[in-house]
Amino acid sequence: MLVLISGGSIIKCVHLLIKHQQAGHHGWSVNAHLQSQTKVNTLLSCQMTLTNEDSKQIKDMSLLTHVLACLFGMGSWVTICGLWVELPLIVPQVPEGWYLPSYLSILTQVANVGPLFVTLMHRFRPGKLNETAVIYFIVCFGTLASVLLAFLWKETVIVQGVERSIYLLILTFFISTVDCTSSVTFLPFMMQLKAEYLTTYYVGEGLSGLVPAVVALIQGVGAMHCVNSSQNFNPNETISGSLDSANYLIPHYLPANFSAKAFFFFLAAMMFVCFVAFLLLNKLPVVARERSISLKYQGAIRMSDFVREKKNSEQKPMMKSPNVIKKFSGMYGKGIYSWAQIVYIFIILAWVNALTNSVLLSVQSYSCLPYGNRAYHWSATLASLANPLACFIAMFYAQRSLVLMGFLTAFGSVIGVYIMGMAVLSPCPLLVNHISGAILIVAAWTFFVLTLSYVKVIIAVILRDEGHSALVWCGAVVQLGSLLGAVIMFPLVNVYDFFSSGDPCNTRC
């Protein structure tokens, strides 16, 4: 089937390279093969054949594969993102009340045992873990957990005389484990496809947060209006606030357009779509053909580059042979970076994910609620939209510049400082009673997520050039950064009460 696509040129080149490689005992025998100038020239001309004859085919992007990669990426975080946007509807109906978010935060971090296990397996038992089987398992398990959540989220159990939402907490741990583990399994799988599909995958990952948020807005989660506390309400209505004064305004939450049960079924359907997309990415002939060509092409280029380097070093015996890996420059080059640069990239990756996934997310309500409920919802929605928008921009303006990455990280961090400052000043931040204050906080959240999401895409593209192991560690560092951010913020928010929430109905500054 591959011969029909490319006229056999890729297969012949790869076959020749493998034949030369197998001549050695354990790999590429440089001394045995570089003595023959004819063989070297054949291998180098083989690379030229790949580059010239098959360039159009290698660069062709299948629309179907893009769609499947996007749908596959949408399943990465959809369940846990969906649960968080549904909390305003869940919290008034469970015994934990508003303590529930802090419990879920802890459970989400404990769920990092999933990616930790995968990372350790790659480190100490390389090649023993079947990533495809792991992905099938976690996607199916996530679908099942979402279905069970639809039926059991309101069920309670008496534990030591106290009513607890045990089923909700356990299932939250399960779906968190599924989503966290996707970081170290989905990305390495995407490396089997061309680099363009990795960006599309990130668009889908961004949509995994956007789509549940949009559905939640349609559902009416968080919709409320302020009423006088002296009014009489139906006992079934959800009311929070103080009734000490007849003139005191309290938030009255309107009924949702559909139930939390229906919302969790929607999340289960999203996970099932992710399963179907992954199945097709593995089984469809057109996708499998593209994946095979990509892998063989990458292997052929790596081997022929190695031969070219050895050939050049033998032609110039008086020159000192470098002991470090050569760094290739260029905007779209196959960048191989030094250890110092790799460490720098991973530090940026951990910092960016700590800010976006835990540090500022923990104080989003404190930074937005003083400006009103509408400002909070616009901030959450536009921030969710900014993630896939950054990936969409990267499809047309992809960069591997470490300088640009550092500049954007600094710019996004400055915006983060503003957001954190407004959270610290809650319930009376700057411009609290002005429309400009609400506009500024919405814009800050939007550009904060947009900028740092683009940084994530830059890092993913860079690490893809470094190989499979780099993408595995990429996912691990993402979770590590998120964990450290959560560990730092949890006591500040929940133990020391460092932040004070604004009252959407009774702000007095």
Automatic annotation (TrEMBL):
Q: Which UniProt keywords apply?
A: Cell membrane, Membrane, Transmembrane, Transmembrane helix, Transport
Topology in the lipid bilayer: Multi-pass membrane protein
Q: Does the keyword Cell membrane apply?
A: yes
Gene Ontology MF terms in the entry:
riboflavin transmembrane transporter activity
- State which residue ranges cross the membrane: 63-85, 97-121, 133-153, 165-189, 201-222, 262-281, 336-355, 375-397, 404-425, 437-463, 470-493
**Localization, UniProt:** Cell membrane
Q: Show the catalytic activity.
A: riboflavin(in) = riboflavin(out)
Superkingdom assignment: Eukaryota
**Sorted alphabetically, which InterPro entries does this protein's record hold?**
Riboflavin_transptr
Q: Which GO terms describe its cellular component?
A: plasma membrane
Q: Into which family does the record put it? A: Belongs to the riboflavin transporter family.
PANTHER family referenced in this protein's UniProt entry, alphabetically: RIBOFLAVIN TRANSPORTER, SOLUTE CARRIER FAMILY 52
Q: What does this protein do?
A: Plasma membrane transporter mediating the uptake by cells of the water soluble vitamin B2/riboflavin that plays a key role in biochemical oxidation-reduction reactions of the carbohydrate, lipid, and amino acid metabolism.
Please state what the protein is called: Riboflavin transporter
